[in-house]
């Protein structure tokens, strides 16, 4: 089955199989689980979330889609419009997947904090220099 990219403003209530709906405005993508179970899979897009890439043969979504909350527990990649199946999640992988998700987010926000602190430090140095004049 091929996955097509369809850009929308609002997510439609009824999703069609084989379509990856993307709303840039809301930074979100949604599709029906590739196994055919009918579950709606929502994937937020962003620096700490999923990354969408459009290619001539279809959309690529990174990282993989791990539907460990769904009954089917599907795990697959959407790569250039194709579904690449991965192994089912084991409880260890689910735990590791959750951990790495948290780490990715943690690292991102740490970097933001460092940048902010760097700015504050430079600002205080500047204030002190002004006071010494
Ligand atoms: Zn499924």
What does the model show?
There is one protein chain. By secondary structure, this protein is of the alpha+beta class. It has one helix spanning 91-132, and strands at residues 4-7, 19-23, 28-32, 40-44, 51-55, 58-66, 75-79, 82-85. 32% of the residues lie in helices and 32% in strands. It has a four-stranded mixed sheet with strand order 1-2-3-4, with no helix packed on it. It has a four-stranded antiparallel sheet with strand order 5-6-7-8, with no helix packed on it. It starts with a strand and ends with a helix. The model has no long low-confidence stretch (mean pLDDT 88). It binds zinc ion. Residues 33, 35, 37, 39, 67, 70, 72, 74 line the site of zinc ion.
Give a quick summary of the entry.
The chain has 133 residues and is α+β, with helices and mostly antiparallel strands. It has one helix spanning 91-132, and strands at 4-7, 19-23, 28-32, 40-44, 51-55, 58-66, 75-79, 82-85.
Keywords:
alpha+beta; binds zinc ion; 4-stranded mixed beta sheet; 133 residues; 1 helix; 4-stranded antiparallel beta sheet
